Every structure is written in structure tokens, then in C-alpha cells.
Amino acid sequence: KLKIPLTLKVILTFTWKLYYINLKSNHYIPLLLYSPQNNVFCLFVLGLKEIRSAFDVYSICSEEKNEYLDNEFRLKDKQGYSRTSRDETDTWAYIAAEGDHDITEDSSDTRQQTMSLGMDMQLEWLSLEDFQKHLDGEDEEHSTKDVISSVQLRDAIKNGNYTMVKMALNSNEEYNLDQEDSSGMTLVMLAAAGGHDDILRLLIRKGAKVNCRQKNGTTALIHAAEKNNLTTAALLLEAGAHVNVQQKNGETALMKACKRGNYDIVRLMIENGADCNISSKHQSNALHFAKQCNNLSVSELLRNHLAMLTRVAEETIREYFEARLSLMEPIFDIACHLLCEGPDYSSEFTYKAPQNVPEGSGILLFIFHANFLANDVIARLCGPCSVQAVVLNDKFQLPVFLDSHFIYSFSPIQGLNKLFIRLAEAPTAKVKLLIAAYRVQLQ
């Protein structure tokens, strides 16, 4: 009999697995709670005095299971709890720790090492190496005599059948992993829309492209954001998904997340270089959609991020010119472009000239090279530069310094202007470009 000082109560909407991480310790046992469908991990460290002799087989007695379930149902009835589909709500695990419970050994079957927590969970004895193999889809050898067709593979991905997908991809059969249906939906998009992270990881490891677009311009990342699949979006971004791609209606993955009011996905997008000021065909940006859903935390997050970018840009300009350049009004909202998303940047903006132009003032375009850190942004106007040319309304703009292409003279016209920037090709670059224009005056 063993008393564990921690009872995990897990309210969840999908199946979890509980793994014992085999680390050599006489005082602690790390337990990893893992959702294969959503790539969500929770790590617990249990302090035990007698691990070797006591921690062989656990099971919670049936009375405790029934008491646990009764308490949960009472809580749900009291709060008017109702569960909607996964597409309409965030999928989260709420974990509480309370009370000490006695755990008794079940000597009826010592070979089956499981821990029952009143739900479908299994405690499997797994090393870190074996766990990594599981993530890579190499933990089990599946074989089948029947050939899995492309249609069956597509259906398996849509239904989240991880075993069948792994059997197909590990077989000798050749598949077109970028196959599309009539709307342009690829296998990666199906996995992303369904939140099937294990399947998505297998597809990516086998070489499936993550930046394919449907006929309406939708990408796998947009599907993940629209379906509130946070870990799926993170997996796609890690695999090189383009964050600023627009649908035909001009909406981006960030706008979809703002429509949903999903704070975590919005934060993930902006940390990966999402442009908050991109406008849709109806001239609505991410902040507009956040206000529409009345989500104050998302709106504040976007405003704080834009304020930080503006502050960093202006401080970098003043530092570069040693405070000899006075910044007046901005010409357009600051923009962000990831160099890995392509060598061309284009945008449109409307310029309204002031009635009284200060004497000796002019307009400069600044193209910062920036890196986004945890809670900070570092920008520079010197060093290696990826900018090759700047074209405004079909006219080349001249760099202020011949040996540096970070700063350009800028001559917008009254009304609508079209900006085009030619950049060096760097598909694997992590650098982000901040693009801003100001009316300035030498002091």
C-alpha cells in the first residue's frame, strides 16, 4: 500500500496517455501526460520515498472511481456545464491537485502495469528514447498484406486514424503527399483542420508541403487557426508555415484567430512575425476582428505588440542618427514581413499630405532587420542587408547611403500608393523585416 501526495483530476475532451519517464532517481518519479491527438504535454514530478519496492502496479479502487465520477457530474449539473464540439471551443486539460489518496496494489495481474484515474488513461513504462520514437512514428512495426489506396489514406487522415496512416507511410507504396481534392485541400490541411498532430508530424517528416494553398487561398495554418488548434499551429510554424499568407478575401491566420478570440494562438502568431496591420478586402485588420468579438485581452495584446514595434523602430532610428533626426508623423502603419516567405514584399497605403509641410522636412522609408525574442524585439539599420530595390508607384526610390540599403528617400503621392520591395532569396532565414516610413527633419 502506498500513499501518493497527489491526485490528478483531469477534465478533458480527448484520450490522454500517461508515461513514466525512466530517469534514475531515488526520490522522484517524473510522469508525462501526453495527448497524441493534440501534442499537449503536462509534466508531474511525484516525490516517493520507496520507489523500487512500492511503485510496481497501481489502481484506484472502484469506490474512489465512482466517488470521483459522481462529484464531477454534480459539479457539471450545478454549473450548467455543457460541452460543444471541439471546433467551437478551446481544447484544454484542467488539472487540479487535492487530498491524499491511498493507492492499493492489484496483485491479480502484475504484468499489466496501469494506473486508472477514472478515465481512459494508461501508465506505460517508457524511456525517453522510446518516447521520441513514438513521436517520430517509429515505435511500432505495423504491416499489412492489403495495399492502402490513396483514397483510404485520405480518409484515414480525415478521421484521425493514426495507425492506418503510419502503416501506409511506412510501407513500400508510393503516395503523392501533396494530393488535392476538388477544392485544393491537401493531406496536411486535413490533418491540420482535424487537429491530428501525430498524423501531421508524420506527413511533414515524409516531406509533405505545409504551404500549399486552396483555390480560395486557404493554407493549413489558416485551417488550424480557424479550428482553434493551438498545438497544430505551433507545429506548422515550426515546420516553416508562412504566417502572413492571405486568402482571396484578404484574411490571414492571425485574423482567423482574432475572430475566434483565441488569445494563445494570437500570441503565437505575432511572436512568429504575423503582420497585425494587414488589411482584408473589406479594409479590416486583426485589431478590428478582435474588437468585433469583444475580446479585450486579444485587443490589448495586439495594441501592446504594435506599440512595442513602433517604440523599437523609433528608438533604433534615433540611436542610428545619434538623435540628430527628428521624427514627425508616420506615413503608414508599421508592417512586418518574414524574409523566408519570399523575396517580394508589396503593399498599398493611402497618403494624405499635411496642409502645412514643415520647412526642411522630408520623408524616409526605413527597412529594419529584426529578431523577435520572448518579450522583446531587436532591430538594426546596419550590417548585412537583404534589400535589393524599392519601387513606389512604378518609380525606383534611391537609398540614402550608397553602401547601405536600409534607408530610402520616399516620395508618396496624394491618395493611393503602391509599394514594392525586392529582397534577396533566403527561404530558411529567420530574420523579420519591419517596414516603416516617417516624415523627418534634421536637427
TrEMBL record:
PROSITE patterns per the UniProt record, alphabetical: ANK_REP_REGION, ANK_REPEAT
InterPro entries xrefs: Ankyrin_rpt (IPR002110), Ankyrin_rpt-contain_sf (IPR036770), Dendritic_Spine_Reg/Scaffold (IPR050889)
Keyword annotations from UniProtKB, A to Z: ANK repeat, Repeat
Entry keyword ATP-binding: no
The keyword Repeat is annotated on this UniProt entry: yes
Annotated GO MF terms: chromatin binding
GO cellular component, one term: nucleus
Protein origin, superkingdom: Eukaryota
Ranges occupied by ANK repeats: 183-215, 216-248, 249-281
PANTHER family: M-PHASE PHOSPHOPROTEIN 8 (PTHR24166:SF47), ROLLING PEBBLES, ISOFORM B (PTHR24166)
Protein name: M-phase phosphoprotein 8
Organism name: Naja naja (Indian cobra)
Lineage of producing organism: Eukaryota, Metazoa, Chordata, Craniata, Vertebrata
